[in-house]
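Feature request, filed as a ticket because there's no other form

It would be nice if the structure record came with a short human-readable summary line next to the tokens. Right now we just get the raw output. Example of a typical job, pasted below so the devs can see what we mean:
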Amino acid sequence: MDYLPIFVNIKDQHCLIVGGGAVAARKADLFIKSGAVVTVISPELKTEMKYHLSHGKIVWQMGVFSEDLIRTLTKPKYVISATDDETINQAVYHYCQANQIPVNVADQTEYCDFILPAIVDRAPMTIAISTGGRSPVLARVMKARLEALVPAGFGRLTDLVGRYRQKVKDAISELDGRKVFWEKLLDSSFIDKTVQGRIEEAEQYLQKEIEQVEKTGQEIPPGEVYLIGAGPGDPDLMTFKGLRLLQQADVILYDRLVAPEIVEMARREAERIYVGKKDKWHKVQQTDISQMMVDLAKEGKRVARLKGGDPYIFGRGAEEAEVLVKNGISFEVVPGITAAAGCSAYAGFPLTHREFSQSVSLVTGHQQAGAEGIDYARLAQSGDTMVFYMGIKNSAKIQAGLLNQNMNPATPAAIIEKGTTAEQKVTFTRLDSLAMTIEQNDIKPPALLIVGDVIKVRERLRQ
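Raw output as currently delivered:
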């Protein structure tokens, strides 16, 4: 993050706007809505600022900003400078820096201690969108989309929930119990009743739920595990179901190949535990990971086991599921886009094509799985597009195994590093040059090897 998003209470605080034009008026409007006492310094006021003045929403100090003038005013809590005069804007900035007053110079992030986001106002719910000052237009586009997604009645919902928060706390002493209560309530018709303005019905519904808890006690449901495929790298390839379950989880166990942006999609309160592995370095053994899931679920936790790609394709998800079954733990598997599908598409070619390949083989090239154990004779004769996972270290054995079965040395091959991410790098070569290409380019895992004539389709698609 470029800026820490913080909502600040400025009710009855003195705040200063330098400038009297349209931009300054929009900034002043934010201060006014937040309950601040707003002073405006400007030689003249334009239409919008005159409106604020005529309604008693601002105090106007006629004149040009100067240190002598500002010293006659109450020291402001925050200052915004929105003039067309660069000299004045810089003077405001330097004065505020010298006096330790947070300042924002409109459209000049280099002179901003804070920035003002685009806002979706569903008071008391407020959604703020920021691009770190890079693109206000993009922030407004996102604001427009959220305006359409979040009903106006969400303000009523937020207010009602806030008014009953203490009552629920009195009825349910345990934090986990209260969390379960609110999640259940906010996944019911209670939301629709409130958003549509049927407040009396919504309050009756909520009150009955509280009374039920007081009579019978709040049952905390047993823990469960979600085996979630996070996809090959690009956060946009995460499925809706995976995202929904991730945001319900109390604990996140995540692998090395899971994009950090996906881990950040979890709710802030969730515990995050890194259980990643890499070649010849296992931070957490597989048996320990499986036992960790069991132990956490038995504590009543909802556990998201995030795996790169798909949990059932070389992800050891089935092994973990077996352990959960043996221990009576409820679990759900969420498929993910496997690396073969994601990386080939992002590299610009398909896995199958009527002219070149009608089938695909997904093969583990990992040393522990035994590159020598691969049925190279079948692969060489099958016409399959061959996708080797974890095959970088054994590329020479893979190359030799296929060539020894008389596979065409000129068969195209692709090596895809960090597939589907912004750092993706694709190296194209031939089967007989595969190992040498990897060595010469110093290619390291994670990388995917794809061998097959279907790679030729890339040139057609590029045209």
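Something like this underneath would help us a lot:
The radius of gyration is 30 Å.
The mean pLDDT is 91.
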